[in-house]
Amino acid sequence: MKISKQRLNQIIKEELAKVEEGGFAGHYNKDEYSDEEQSEYSVGDLVEIHISDDGYDTSMVILDSADEFVATHGYTTSAKLLVKVVQVSRREYED
What predicted TM-score, i.e. pTM, was given to this entire model? Predict the structure, then answer.
């Protein structure tokens, strides 16, 4: 069986498109195996964390740069932190 150069290029483009969609030669669709939403936090994000004195109120806000962080807090705040996300956990389901 002979394949023309034009047909070969078309086959390669189709297979590359399948790979870019999430799998090798279209055998794996990444959306098919995603049970939950992705985390809103990514590795490298800067996050400002506020924790109240009583520990009940907490907030986490993603910042665009470290310059946005104001390193002071009021008397009702126990801790105010600027953290850089190093790793984001994945949920594991038990059988």
Answer: 0.53
Q: Domain limits of the chain? A: 1-35, 39-88
Q: Residue 41 corresponds to which tokens in the numbers above?
A: 């936090």
Main-chain phi, psi angles of 57, to 5 degrees: -100, 125
Q: What angle do CA 83, 86, 91 make, to 5 degrees?
A: 110
Separation between Cα atoms, residue 16 and residue 95, nearest integer Å: 36
* SS3 at position 62: strand
Parts of the chain with a pLDDT under 50: 25-26, 28, 30, 32-35
Tell me what percent of the residues of the chain surpass a pLDDT of 70.
73
